[in-house]
Each structure stands twice: as structure tokens, then as C-alpha cells.
Amino acid sequence: MKTPTNTAAVTGPFRIYVRQTPVGAKLDVSHYLNVVLRGLAQVAAEDPEGFVEELTDLAALDAQATREGKDSHAQHELDDRLDHLIAEVADDGSLPLSGKAVHGLIDRLAQIEVLTPRPIPAAQAESGVAA
Question: How far apart are CA 12 and CA 16, in angstroms?
């Protein structure tokens, strides 16, 4: 029996939903993102000008890093500043799972039927593989 898509595989501290797709699954972590966005809103409320300045600087660094490449000084600075912001408002980007939550997620993922693509018979014949 499949778990309904509207039932959370993990209920706390952040709800995680698992939805089957034709090629695997999607993890819905919108509850966690809601908390992260509230954290960003709090940071913005405490220092609106500084927050806008930080986001503007990040956008400029991103554009510069795009022009200069992934090993540029701008890319490294962007990565460091994003890591700091993520640490500040999103617990380093980590979703905590207790033992019960781990098992709930494992159980739900185990229910996903992943369709393995079958080779096309003509391609098998060309490669010498028997059908």
C-alpha cells in the first residue's frame, strides 16, 4: 500500500513530503523553507538597509563570478558569504532528523517504484547484446 502524497514522511521538526515522479521522487521541504524565509525576514527587519546591501553585494559577486569562472576570487568570496548567511538563517542548510523521522523517510522512499529504462532491441542488436 502506498502512502498518500499528502501524508508527511517526516512530521517533525520539519515536515518532509515525498512524491513519486515518473523517474524517481521529489522531496517537498517547503515547511523547512518557510522557516528559513521567516529567518531571512527577521534579519531584514532588524537591519533593512544592511540586508538589502548584503543581497545586492551577493548579486554583484554572482555576476562577477559568472564572468570570471568558478575558481575566481569572486566565486570563493560568494561561496564564503553564502555559507555564512546559510549558517545564520538555515542551520547550515541541514534538516535535523530524529531516529523515528529517519525511519519514516526510509520507509517512504522504499515505497517509490523507480522505473528502470529498458534498452531498445535495435540498440541491443547493434551492440551484440542478446535481447
Answer: 8
Alpha-carbon dihedral angle through residues 48, 50, 52, 55, given to the nearest 10 degrees? -140
Question: Given CA atoms 55, 56, 59, 65 in this order, what sign does their dihedral have?
Answer: negative
Amino acid at 44: A
d(CA 66, CA 61): 8
What would the grid cell of residue 126 be? 547493434
Q: List, for residues 57-106, the tens digit of each pLDDT value.
A: 999 999 999 999 999 999 999 999 999 999 999 999 999 998 899 999 99
DSSP H helical segments within the chain, as ranges?
Answer: 30-46, 48-68, 73-90, 99-110, 121-127
Measured CA to CA, the distance from residue 39 to residue 22 in angstroms comes to: 34
Residue 2 class from Cβ within 10 Å (0-12 exposed, 13-18 middle, 19+ buried)? exposed
Q: At a CB cut-off of 8 Å and minimum separation 6, what does 101 contact?
A: 10, 11, 12, 16
Supply the DSSP symbol for 114.
P
Q: How many CB atoms lie within 10 A of CB 26?
A: 11
Instruction: Reduce the DSSP state of residue 63 to 3 states and report it.
Output: helix
